[in-house]
Amino acid sequence: MQPIERVTITMPHDMTADIRQAVDAGEYATTSEVVRDALRLWQRSRREHAWSHAQLCAEIQKGIDSGDPVDAADVFDRLEAQLMQRIRRTADA
After folding, report:
1. Among 19, 49, 76, 77, which is 20 to 30 Å from 9 by CA?
2. Are 23 and 31 in contact, with CB atoms under 8 Å apart?
3. How far apart are the C-alpha atoms of 43 and 47, rounded to whole Å?
4. DSSP string spanning 9-53?
5. Mean pLDDT score, 22-31
6. Cα–Cα distance between 53 and 26 in angstroms, integer?
């Protein structure tokens, strides 16, 4: 088991009321458990964000390295034309 350290935090009343309500409802045994659970979710979110950012940077670099320049306006024009075709087909059906 990891060593435990006591931390004092200040938060708005509505947050503390939500925490107490979760404990009173039996969802958690203590207010500390609620906060630890919330921090685990925050940590996971930060890891996922960092991974997503790293993946995005890698994909951008792959595109740069590919040497195949693409005109964004041309891509958008083609996508818009495809969308308009689908809209027309749906309207005609």
Report:
1. 49
2. yes
3. 6
4. ----HHHHHHHHHHHHTTS-SSHHHHHHHHHHHHHHHHHHHHHHH
5. 97
6. 38
